[in-house]
Amino acid sequence: MSQSLAESLFQELEQIVLIDPHTHINPHSAPSQTLADIMGYHYYTELAHSAGLPKDQIEQEGLDPKEKVGRLVGKLADLDNTIQVSWLLDICREFFGFTDDRLTPENWESVYDSALEKMAQPDWEKQVLDHSKLEKVFLTNDFDDPLEGFDTNLYIPCLRTDDLVFHFTKKAVQQRLEKATEIEVHDVVTMREAIGKLFAHFCAKGAKACAISIPPSFQPMKCDPGAVSAIIKRANKQQKLTDAEQAMLSAFAFWTITEFCAEHKLPFDLMIGVNRRVYEDGVFQGQDLFDKRVSLIQYKELFNAFPQVTFPISVLGSTSNQELVSYA
Fold this sequence. Notes:
This protein is α/β, with parallel strands linked by helices. It folds into two domains: 34-119, uronate isomerase, domain 2, chain A, CATH 1.10.2020; 139-327, TIM Barrel (Alpha-Beta Barrel), CATH 3.20.20.140. Helix content is 48%, strand content 9%. The chain has helices at residues 3-14, 36-39, 42-50, 55-58, 65-73, 83-96, 108-119, 124-132, 162-166, 171-181, 188-204, 225-236, 243-264, 300-305, 318-327; strands at 18-20, 134-138, 155-156, 158-160, 209-214, 268-272, 274-275, 289-290, 313-314. Helix 12 (225-236) packs across helix 13 (243-264).
């Protein structure tokens, strides 16, 4: 491809108005306020930690944002070959007037101060959206989020369902669900009613998707309601479930959520293949590991049962990517 053709294609791509389908933005305080809000994301903290920066120097309580950025910048030279550092440099050039090749201990403070001044401007949020050509931004909302106090036409609610599927046995999750729905879940009927009420709330507030992060061992399936009701009763009493019982409870909740996705015509985003808290001494959100011991054949029953549901799927392994192409 010639340079002129590449530049021409790039300019055409630059004109496309974007919708970001997955973020963890807080819509009540969406724009960054300091460079630490960007470099404090796990894309950078986990890399800096892997390069030798101690966790307590990254997550020190009460750490000044400028000091945090300085500590992280000290490790960027070790991470020079990563796409994350390339993204950071692009951000600094596009928004903060940065012109050097690298962010270093000698030049970072001026960039920090420029960013601080720019981010303090009253229209900073609009500047970012306009310059990035972002039309809408999908959120990640807990199931008990009231979804109030922000523009749901710009920041699109998305029901995150991990707690319902994988953590219902926790008393705090059961209490949150009861508070959000005014339904005490004690069997499959009340679980279905509660989940249905959550969908009604989210859809009334403009939700356009449902999402979940799934461990590699999970297999969706339709379960016997009677057996699941007995498991729910045990979970209510905080009795420890066997692995098989936990799997059945999770499968029922997942299947029920999918049924409501079909009813409300919502896509169900599946992020498949992550093991959580593998590296327990890692930084926040930097503790996970993908796993090759996963196959989309585990989702055969689901995909055949719900042809009317759109499943945007992300996978982490090369073999899973090949399967995904075949499924598509």
